[in-house]
């Protein structure tokens, strides 16, 4: 065997012999040659005196850089997420995102008020701002208060929510009825399938010669086997000969009558 046909990678302590194996008996010899080649290459490396003194025994060498590159231990770092069309446009135009202030100036009350929530700057029925004049476009009975029909008042919310709440309640009731009907149908189908499965199981348990008497059941399996009543054997003694003779004659008479 030629030692020059063996490739040695000291960085990974790996020996490669790509030749095909012709006979099974050559495997041990080729393996011994490869190991011997690896040991010879290791002893040709210069010893590391400092590392040897630190270990205290033997011969320590530093392995060279590996020839073959192994796959990465960890995945490649993720690429930076590409900018959206708006982000590219904003960067090109110099547009910067600014956080909206929580408080804004209310011209009506001449004070700083929250942008949203209770007491917000926009005049409403809940704010302290006074709306002393509004335009009444709705027709109604005389003497009614048009300010109570403003958007946001309890009366307007009640009037707006009345029909909607009724429709939602009707839809919810119809939905519950449909769900209940579907559950009932599913329960009936499951009961029918369970009865059919029990019937098939009872047939399978009685399909053996022993009527399932010696079959092993699995955990949770119902026992559908039909067991007959055991009959006690009669004594075969001289005192019973007369009754036995009588039964035999009755059987013979029945057979002869059937033949005739």
Q: Which keywords apply here?
A:
single chain; 260 residues; mainly alpha; two-stranded antiparallel sheet; 40% helix; flat
Order of helices and strands: EEHHHEEHH
Number of helices: 5
The biggest sheet amounts to:
2 strands, antiparallel
* Oligomer designation: single chain
The whole-number mean of residue pLDDT values reads 77
Gross morphology is: flat
Count all strands and give the number. 4
How would you summarize the topology of this molecule?
Blueprint: E1 7-9, E2 14-16, H1 26-43, H2 49-55, H3 85-93, E3 103-106, E4 111-114, H4 154-205, H5 241-259
Antiparallel strand pairs: 1-2, 3-4
Main location: nucleus
Biased composition (Basic residues): 113-125
Protein name: Ribosome biogenesis regulatory protein
């Amino acid at each position: 065997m030629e030692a020059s046909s063996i490739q040695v990678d000291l960085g990974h302590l790996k020996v490669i012999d790509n030749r095909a194996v012709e006979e099974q008996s050559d495997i041990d010899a080729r393996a011994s040659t490869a190991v011997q080649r690896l040991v010879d290459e290791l002893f040709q490396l210069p010893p590391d005196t400092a590392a040897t003194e630190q270990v205290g025994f033997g011969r320590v060498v530093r392995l060279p850089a590996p020839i073959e590159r192994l796959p990465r231990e960890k995945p490649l770092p993720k690429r930076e997420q590409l900018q959206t069309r708006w982000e590219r446009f904003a960067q090109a135009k110099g547009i910067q995102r600014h956080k909206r202030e929580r408080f804004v100036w209310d011209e009506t009350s001449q004070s700083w008020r929250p942008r949203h929530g209770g007491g917000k700057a926009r005049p409403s029925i809940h704010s302290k701002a006074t709306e002393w004049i509004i335009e009444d476009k709705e027709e109604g009975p005389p003497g009614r208060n048009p300010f109570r029909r403003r958007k946001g008042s309890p009366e307007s919310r009640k009037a707006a929510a009345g029909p909607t709440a009724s429709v939602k309640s009707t839809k919810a009731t119809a939905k519950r009825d449909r769900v209940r009907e579907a559950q009932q149908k599913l329960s009936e189908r499951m009961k029918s399938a369970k009865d059919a499965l029990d019937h098939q199981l009872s047939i399978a348990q009685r399909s053996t010669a022993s009527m399932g008497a010696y079959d092993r059941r699995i955990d949770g399996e119902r026992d559908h086997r039909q067991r007959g009543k055991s009959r006690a054997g009669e004594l075969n003694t001289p005192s019973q000969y007369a009754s036995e003779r009588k039964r035999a004659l009755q059987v013979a008479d029945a057979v002869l009558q059937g033949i005739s």
